[in-house]
Amino acid sequence: MSFRLSYLADPGNPWFSWQYVRDNSDTILAAVREHASLTGRAVVIAVLIALPLSVLAYWFRPLAGPILAVSGVVYTIPSLALFAFIAPYLGTGATTVLVGLVLYALLLIVRNVVAGLNQVPPEVREAAEGMGYGRWRRLFRIDLPLALPGIVTGVRLATVSTVALVTVGVLVGHGGLGQLIFAGFQNNLYKAEIMTAALLCVALAVVLDLLLILVARLVTPWSPRRAR
Amino acid sequence: MIVAANPIGQAITWINDPLNWTNPGGMLDRLGEHLTISALAVALGCLVAWPLGLWLGHLGRGGGLVVLISNATLAIPTLALLTILPVVFASGFGKTPVVVALAVFAVPPLLANAYTGVRQADPEARDAARGMGLSSAQLLRRVELPLAVPYLAAGFRTAAVQVIATAALASFVNGGGLGQIIRTGFGIGIAAGGGQIVAGGVLVAGLALLAEVVLGGVERLVTPKPLRRGRQRLGRPRAADATGSA
């Protein structure tokens, strides 16, 4: 009898099992809920911080460089290291994960919103000024609506990458579906558990992305519909 | 809520203990593991992505494939791939599955930049080369490849930084690397291991930032002077950028 990793060939360890899904539906649902809620909160907070930052970078050009540079450096820091910096101060709670996720999502959103705002044609800007629009009214009536495609791209990228990133939260015990993946790994490579969680992770990213595309269509009814 | 008393002070103490450097499983060991895994993964990624990207670019086809690969890897959680591959390879927990998993994340930036690098070659240069009687293979080797070098370097930087960052997660699957220092710190508990956690974070982050700076310099060096400014920076294609975070 070979002892060497015999469980790998074991038919009792299938890639996918409805039995597992049925028996553990509560755990799985709880993990999905935590995953989705962490993603949602992180993206919403990141948008709320990123929009004012981007407008600052747009209005005051000298600020654009530093804002993008700082968020770029934060983005280069590996997620594990970022969580390691935050955890000793905030403890091993969901807050630690949330702060890390927000910091990462920030860069993606800021970069795309700034690009979107800079794409507003100068003629349009001048026309708005000529019509007597002030800075604020121009921002809300002209600049931001025209930058919506950039904003949407940023939010979509941030959402999809946040969904993947939540799993690293395993480090502090709040990794959503990552908890299941890691538990499956520790549980003698329980393939069904790893696979179910990984597939749900990808599915969550796809569903959220499609939702955002739908929202984008609703808020930009003037943009041309492409068959893609 | 448990928090560490003075994580930074503890971290300085931890880093200053010579034993933490030279012990088995100390910083030097982990650094060696980290660099080995990363280098192998990037090399494997280059081996797969560069020929494919250059070839597709040369043919001018497969742009959709390149985008698809970038987007698909964006949604896959690193942790999932790191845990699934040991099962696929049936080789247990050695370095191979970790290296392959990391190489998968190195492919999109390498591929996208190799493809773009060849595609952006001046069509007139290409026509001139054809007019001089260069064969298709000669055209790729003597004209398109040299013109693509800055892009290859940019892709290499993105991929390497990303792999070094992601290699920290190898510690979850007992793959070693600097991430192990952080994990051990969490194992001790935040109150006692806070310093070690922060120290590990500093090492991982420092290595990633160092790689970014050094490879950025290399990228500049291999970019011919007239191309250094005015060119849209393609070093970080958007999709690849997002995967870089894991």
Give a brief description.
Chain B: Pfam families: BPD_transp_1. The complex is a heterodimer of chains A (about 230) and B (about 250). Helices cover about 75% and strands about 0% of the residues of chain A.
Describe it for me?
The complex is a heterodimer of chains A (228) and B (246). By secondary structure, chain A is mainly alpha-helical. Chain A has a single domain (19-219), classed as MetI-like (MetI-like fold). Chain A has nine helices and no strands. The longest helix of chain A is centred in the N-terminal third of the chain and has 35 residues, at 25-59. The relative contact order of chain A is 0.14. Residues 1-9 of chain A have low confidence and may be disordered. Chain B has a single domain (7-243), classed as MetI-like (MetI-like fold), CATH 1.10.3720. In chain B, helix 7 runs antiparallel to helix 8. The radius of gyration of chain B is 21 Å and the shape is elongated. Chain B contains twelve helices and no strands. Residues 230-246 of chain B have low confidence and may be disordered. Chain B is mainly alpha-helical. Chain B is 78% helix and 0% strand. The two termini of chain B are 26 Å apart. Chains A and B meet through helix 3, helix 4, helix 7, helix 8 and helix 9 of A and helix 5, helix 8, helix 9, helix 10 and helix 12 of B.
Write down the secondary-structure element order of chain A. Answer: HHHHHHHHH
Helix content of chain B: over 70%
CATH fold description of chain A: MetI-like fold
Instruction: Using the coordinates shown, work out and report the CATH topology of chain B.
Output: MetI-like fold
CATH architecture of chain B: Orthogonal Bundle
β-sheet strand percentage of chain A: under 5%
C-alpha termini separation of chain A: 55 Å
Helix content of chain A: over 70%
The CATH homologous superfamily of chain B is termed: MetI-like
Query: For the residues shown, what is the average pLDDT of chain B?
Result: 82
- At the first level of CATH, the class of chain B is Mainly Alpha
State the helix count of chain B: 12
Radius of gyration of chain A: 22 Å
Radius of gyration of chain B: 21 Å
The domain tally of chain A reads 1
| Main beta sheet strand tally, sense and closure of chain A | none
Total DSSP helices of chain A: 9
Shape of chain A: elongated
Pfam families (chain B): BPD_transp_1
Domain ABC transmembrane type-1 (chain B): 31-215
Subcellular location (chain B): Cell membrane; Membrane
Transmembrane segments (chain B): 35-57, 64-90, 96-116, 148-173, 185-218
